[in-house]
Structure formats: structure tokens, C-alpha cells
Amino acid sequence: PTKVTKICCIGAGYVGGPTCAVIALKCPHIKVTIVDLNKARIDAWNSPDFKLPIYEPGLEDVVRKARGRNLFFSTDVDKAIQEAELIFVSVNTPTKKSGVGAGFAADLNYVELATRNIANVATSSKIVVEKSTVPCRTAESMRTILEANSKPNCRFDILSNPEFLAEGTAIQDLFKPDRVLIGSLQTPEGISACEALAEVYANWVPKERVLTVGLWSSELSKLAANAMLAQRISSVNALSAICEATGANIDEVAHAIGYDTRIGPKFLKASVGFGGSCFQKDILNLVYLSESCHLPEVAAYWRQVVEMNEYQKRRFSKRVVDTLFNTITGKRIAVLGFAFKADTGDTRESAAITLIKDFLSERAFVKVFDPQVQHDQIWMDLQEASPLVPLDHIKKHVSISGSALEACKNADAIVIATEWKEFKELDWEEIYKTMNKPAFLFDGRLLVDAAKLTKIGFKVTTIGRPSALPV
Ligand code: NAD
Ligand code: UDX
Fold this sequence. Notes:
Number of helices: 19
Pfam family, one: UDPG_MGDP_dh
Oligomer: single chain
Helix content: 40-55%
Shape: globular
Protein name: UDP-glucose 6-dehydrogenase
Strand order of the largest sheet: 3-2-1-4-5-6-7-8
Domain UDP-glucose/GDP-mannose dehydrogenase C-terminal: 334-450
Bound molecules: nicotinamide-adenine-dinucleotide, uridine-5'-diphosphate-xylopyranose
EC number: 1.1.1.22
């Protein structure tokens, strides 16, 4: 197989950045160049004081060790492509907003542009690795584009190597992956390309964790893994609604069923709804794929996972309004957390966006606090969620606080939207004193000790527990 000495990664985002930074750290003999068209992003990766464009625990340390040694960030996409023997395509693949498949299919425009870029500038053979999450058989389109545009003596082998890291734990996940999946054509050339990439991972991943499969299985496995994970959350969230209606406690139910080794304890936490850039997008992608394969029952099955998630968010907003005597007009609501999960500054598809939008449509006043999310990002997300409302108007009803304490001052209700650990450790006695009474608290993340807070005086409502009964 090709001996990989130089790697190029196209796309310096949440996946390309951390993934290839870790490759550089673990493979000091390989030169890794991460490129992006977005200059601001590259400048941030190169910033002298390590103000990196994404927040991820442990990432700064990795970049400090490898940057300038064998890890480089650049906007010179062409040069990095020409130098490398192996190229990761790690660009965004968002849900299409218009045209055929709008609202479901993945927008493959960025993948196609990156692929054409490779074909146009490459002067030697390359292994091209699909890192982005793509629909089944995208590798075939990539190969057709590459072969139709290549120069003589340039051979392109395409691999699929989906990424399974979760945000907030990306570095840990990359250091010790459950598995690395590599898909290739089952031809001698395909298998040899697969071996070249496997050798890169072999620098730190035990051999038995590197799985090699066919290309289409690899592509589909990524969509399948996310669909199964999201389905677990929608299942537990559906059960949380039953708990609220019957007096059962979702934490106890999840604990009890998780003891079954066939079910397992992880990823059973009821919540205000899953967010993040992947789950919804990838399930919708799977729904589209199912429909394209004339499998409407299969499509409907997976679509329900997303519908249950929407229902969970709606149900939670409604519970807030119902509990606050059926009106929140003019009331002050502190929203703690804006990121889609703890330990990230990422807000894509965050449940907090939907909740705040709902509170605004009831004409409540919202104060939001998140320890990581940039203020500009919050305004952009709220504007995008309510495109017809001028930002000035949104800003009359929403403000961003510098601390949780400040957000909760004079509030009628607190809503915990993200499970930041620091919210667990707030001085709740102090917060209680500064709030309007009755002081309501809605825990959308099963984060705080409801019994303790009730003792302080809070009226606590928790996901997956009935409102009327004592906690
Ligand atoms: P992102 O939006 O953070 O980053 C993508 C980057 O690619 C952007 O900075 C963009 O400017 C750049 N880009 C787009 N087209 C380009 C081109 N032609 N040349 C150079 N740069 C280009 O996206 P992300 O979150 O890193 O996701 C990337 C892919 O990985 C997606 O397919 C996603 O589904 C998948 N994925 C994401 C996660 C996650 O947790 N975010 C996890 C697993 C897989
Ligand atoms: C997910 C997959 O886990 C990862 O393997 C894939 O590569 C990308 O998509 P990510 O979206 O970063 O990762 O985070 P994840 O931890 O999966 O959480 C997704 C959402 O589900 C978050 O909003 C989280 O709060 C929510 N969640 C997760 C729950 O509500 N309950 C749970 O038990 C777990």
C-alpha cells in the first residue's frame, strides 16, 4: 500500500479540525494540513493565543503540541491537495433547504465542489477519503467526477471513513474510539488503499478496533448508527410523557431497563429533545434514502423519531405555560444553557432555540445564559428561528446574561435547557431569594436535585415526572 507521509483535510470544522489534529499528534512522521475556504476559521485555528474556532475539552492541548510541528492550517487548498497522498473530505453536508429532496436530502454541493477541486489540481495519484456523513453511494459519484476530470497518471482510490466522535467528548472519542470504520471497494486497489489508511490509525488505535467493510456498508453504517442512537432518545422521551401522565419516574424506568444487558445503560437520558448537527439531519437523510428506494414504511418508521423529538420540545414549552397559570405573557424566564449539549459551544438544532422561540411567541421576557456560546451566535440562531420578526424586536424581549445568577434575578421561572455541570452547583438558595414568587424551575435535563430545590421553596417541574404529585 501507499506509504502516507502527507495528509490534507478539506474542511476545518467540528470534525476535520479535531480529527486531523489528533492524527497529527499521534503520527509525528506525517505532515497534516487542514484547509478551509473560510479565512476567519483558519485564522482562528492559527491564532497565537490559541483562541480556536471551536470549544472542545482537550483540543487546545492537542493543537498546542502539534501545530507548527507537523500540523498546519491554511487557506491554500490547492497546494495542500497537490502535496498530499491522502485527502480527507470533511466538509459540511447540511439538509437541503430547497430543490429536490428539500427538508430531507443532504446537500452534497460542498462535497462535490471539494471533489472537483481535487480533480482539477491533483498532479499525482491520491487516496480520497469521505469523512463527511453522506448518503449511501456518494463515493460512486465522487469517483465518477474524479475519473472524468483527472490528468493522465493520476489514479484516485475512494474510501469511506465516517466519523463517530460526539461533540464535547471529541478528543477522548478520537483517542480511544469504539471503532474506526473504513469502507473500500473490494478490488486489489481498494483494499490496498484501505490498508494505507488503516496503517495511519494503527499508530494509536488497536488493530481489532479498525473495521474494514465494503464502501456502501460503511456509508450506511454512519446513518444507521445515528438513527439508532436518536431512536433511543426518542423512545425514552416518549416514555417520559407516559411517566408524567402516570406518576412513574423516567430516571427510575431508564435505570431499571438499562440493567438489561441487551439494552444497556447509556444514552437513555430523557431530555427536552435531542439537538446537534447530526441526528436530525442524518435521520432525514435516511428517510429520503428509504423513499428513494421505494420503501415508504421504512421511511415513516424513521421519520417518527424526528417527529417524537419535535413533540418533546413542544410538550415542554406547553408545560411551562400550563404551570405558570396558563400565561407567560410579560413574565420573565431565565433560560440556562443554549448549546445543544454540555461541553460544547455548538448550538446547531439546539432545543433551547425552539423553547425561546415558543416563549417569545407568548410574549414573555427571556434572559439567557450559556457558559460557552458566543453572543452573536445566539442572536443569529434566534433570528433564523423567527425570520419574520425584526432582530430589534427580538432584542426587546431577550437579553443575554453574563452569569446564571444574573439571568435568574427577578425571574418568574428558570428553564434548564443544557446539562452544564456548573448549573448543578449553583447557589440555589441565593437564586431563590432573588426570584419572583412562586419561583418556578423547569428541569429539561434531569440535572438538579428536585427534592433539595423543593425544600428551598422552588416549584420544580422535571421531565418525566408528574407535576401534581410530590417528587
Ligand atoms: P462544519 O460546518 O463545522 O465544517 C465544515 C467546513 O468545511 C466549513 O468550515 C466550510 O467552510 C468548509 N468547506 C466547505 N466546502 C469547502 C471546500 N470546497 N473547500 C474547503 N473548505 C470547505 O461541519 P462539521 O460539523 O465539521 O461536519 C462535517 C461533516 O462531518 C458533515 O458531513 C457532518 O455530518 C459530519 N459529522 C459531524 C459530526 C459533528 O459532531 N459535528 C460528527 C460526525 C460526522
Ligand atoms: C452524535 C453521535 O453521538 C456521534 O456518534 C456522531 O458522530 C455525531 O452525532 P453529537 O450530536 O455530537 O454526536 O452528541 P450526542 O452526545 O450524541 O448528543 C446529541 C443530542 O442528544 C444532544 O442534544 C444530547 O443532549 C441529546 N441526548 C444524548 C439526550 O437527550 N439523551 C441522551 O441520553 C444522550
